[in-house]
Structure formats: C-alpha cells, structure tokens
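Invent a record, attention on tokens:
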Amino acid sequence: MKLITAIVRPEKLDSIREHLEAEGVQGLTVSAASGYGRQRGYVQVYRGAEYSVDLIPKVRVEVLATDKHADEILETIVVAASTGSQGDGKVWVVEVQDAVRVRTGERGDSAI
C-alpha cells in the first residue's frame, strides 16, 4: 500500500476531488496547511502599509492506495492540481506497512 500526500493550492481542491472520484477513489483526507516553497511568500500592500506574507495557505490531500493504483492516482492529482505556475505544490508517495478498517477489523488492501 502507498500513502499519497499532496500539498496544493486551495482553489484546486474541487478539481482534484472530481478527478479522483472519476478514477474510482472512494476516500481521501483533506486538511488546511500553510507554508512556502521556492517563492518564499509575497509582499502585500494594505491601506498603504506593506507587509510580508511568509506562509501561503495550502491544502493537504491524502489518499491511501493499493500498490496497483498508486501511480494512476499520483498522475491524476498532478494533472488536476497543475496551473503551470510557481506554487502549484508537491506530491509524494510513501510506503504503508499496514492499514486497518476500524469498523470491521479488515487489514491491508481490503481495508482501503
């Protein structure tokens, strides 16, 4: 099993969700995040005063997938999240040793 984690622009969440549902993904976890990459934030002017925004709002999307479907899901997220601009985000995949469905006690791929 693989855990696919994506840190992306908040406005791309609906697109990602729609693409994943079309791919047959039945569950995902979404949480608010903030941070920066190469762009290092930005400077904004409010009522004549300049201030620096160092941490940019992002969304963290996590999907647990079977080894068989992980690459397809990874590519789906990348396509759905891409704007072609700096700050689109990152996606990474880590190996998951085991998973358990709490309600039934199912383990491994059947827990997904």
About this structure: The mean pLDDT is 92. The chain is about 25% helix and 35% strand. The first strand starts at residue 2 and ends at 8. The radius of gyration is 17 Å.
